[in-house]
Specification:
The protein has about 300 residues and is an all-alpha fold. The chain has two domains: about 150 residues; about 150 residues, no CATH class. Helices cover about 75% and strands about 0% of the residues. A two-stranded antiparallel sheet has the order 1-2.
């Protein structure tokens, strides 16, 4: 049983980490202007599956992202097969199947992005789906590591506060996609922009960002007052991620959007989403922990 658990844990973590890394490699494609480094899909050129020397470094960067995308699909397949073979439970199997299905869909959307020459709406959809995949992979990893959820112990107001925070986090990500779609990093010099004013959108993006910070602080205060301890730990982790994300956002907007900071901002967005999932799920203790604590008084009565 221990070996089964270890293989599932490794596969789940590989799923989550690979989904985060693909955001970084995809960001590198966009930020280096390599979005059309491969002009075709699945081939890199009409005549070649791999880049040709004429495409230069842009072809290498875009093709490398495609290769990593294939690895992500393989990892998702392995995760689903292991979940089924190890009888991991309906929740884990369902999450693994959804992650695999959306990962394949993400590859197909990547093809559409190329075919439509990096239209900002298709690029934005590509990123939003990445955020969803990271969040689902985080939930999958949580369930594999901690097991089934126990009964809800937090009061309704605390749960409502956490869910309000995650809703605002989703708004921040969505507005961030619109802001990026208005800015200079289109993935290719000739790619269209969404027509929004980037200077205005930076402010529009900041407003829900500060609302998110306030809600995360409220979640931390509530967790410190009530617990559970694991919930407090993940809430503090999210607070740290949001503070770093805000700092990076302010610095990048004042320094002309350097590609390194923009890339960090993109990766931090999906990491924040993953931690947000952990904050929500940590409101419930694992069922095994609840069962053990319920069994202790029973033994005490028998011994007495």
């Amino acid at each position: 049983m221990l070996e089964r658990s270890r293989s599932l844990v490794v596969a789940a973590w590989a799923t989550l980490v690979s989904q985060v890394i693909i955001v970084g490699t995809g960001g590198a494609v966009r930020l280096t202007g390599s979005g059309l480094g491969c002009s075709e899909w699945p081939n890199c050129t009409p005549e070649s599956f791999t880049p040709v020397p004429e495409q230069g470094i842009h072809g290498v960067i875009e093709f490398s992202n495609r290769v990593w995308g294939g690895i992500v699909v393989v990892i998702a397949i392995v995760m689903l097969v292991l979940a089924i073979r190890k009888h991991a439970g309906r929740t884990i199997v369902t999450l693994a199947a959804i992650v695999l299905g959306l990962t394949v869909a993400q590859a197909l959307i990547g093809a559409v992005v190329v075919w439509m020459t990096l239209r900002p709406d298709t690029v934005g959809l590509h990123f939003v789906l990445s955020v969803i995949l990271v969040a689902l992979s985080a939930a999958l990893t949580w369930r594999v590591v901690t097991g089934p959820a126990g009964p809800r112990t937090a009061p309704r107001w605390q749960s409502a506060l956490v869910h309000a925070m995650t809703a605002v986090l989703a708004v921040v990500v969505f507005v961030g996609v619109l802001t990026t779609g208005s800015g200079p990093h289109a993935g290719d010099g000739g790619a269209a922009r969404n027509g929004l004013d980037p200077a205005v959108m930076q402010h529009v993006h900041a407003w829900p960002g500060y609302a998110l910070l306030a809600l995360v602080l409220a979640v931390v205060v509530a967790a410190a007052a009530r617990g559970p301890r694991r919930h407090l730990g993940w809430s503090l982790a999210l607070l740290a991620a949001v503070l770093v994300q805000i700092a990076v956002g302010i610095i990048q907007s004042r320094t002309g959007l350097p590609i390194a900071l923009v890339g960090i901002h993109m990766v931090l967005a999906v990491i924040s989403a993953a931690i947000g999932v952990a904050v929500v799920l940590s409101l419930r203790a694992p069922a095994t922990t609840v069962a053990r604590s319920a069994a202790v008084p029973e033994r005490g009565r028998v011994d007495a």
